[in-house]
Write a structure and sequence with these properties.
mainly alpha, 5 helices, three-stranded antiparallel β-sheet
């Protein structure tokens, strides 16, 4: 894994679920790892693929958010990314490759892709699928 891969994991988990605590951010990193393993693509490519992680590849308030170096949530995200890069990050998601946050969906409706996938777990107000 490259330095760029690790950096993209850190910023993605921070932007996607910094409010979800360690497990919430770890679960996002797990999805990145699972997608990377399944597709054979680098975490960098997985994170920057259009419309996959909206905080990275789509315009919006989260995509312009940069953490302060002293932000405790950023420090947590960096630690999670380092564990992912080192191959020591456990998978809390049961192999999930997708997730959504019902609170962020219009009317709380599940996205159309969810019907064709198997729910694995709910972590920090996000529902995970494979």
């Amino acid at each position: 894994m490259t330095t760029q891969d690790e950096a993209l994991i850190a910023i993605t988990v921070y932007r996607e679920n910094r409010g979800g605590g360690y497990q919430g951010m770890q679960s996002v990193a797990n999805v990145i790892q699972n997608r990377s393993a399944k597709s054979g693509q680098s975490p960098y490519t997985v994170c920057t693929r259009h419309a996959q992680f909206s905080s990275i590849s789509m315009p919006g308030p989260e995509s312009y958010l940069w953490p302060a170096e002293t932000d405790p949530q950023w420090q947590t995200a960096l630690g999670i990314a380092a564990a992912a890069a080192g191959g020591t990050l456990a998978d809390l998601t049961g192999g999930a490759t997708s997730y959504y946050a019902p609170g962020g969906m219009s009317g709380g409706q599940a996205p159309s892709w969810a019907a064709s996938m198997t729910k694995t777990v709910t972590i920090s107000n996000q529902i995970f699928f494979k």
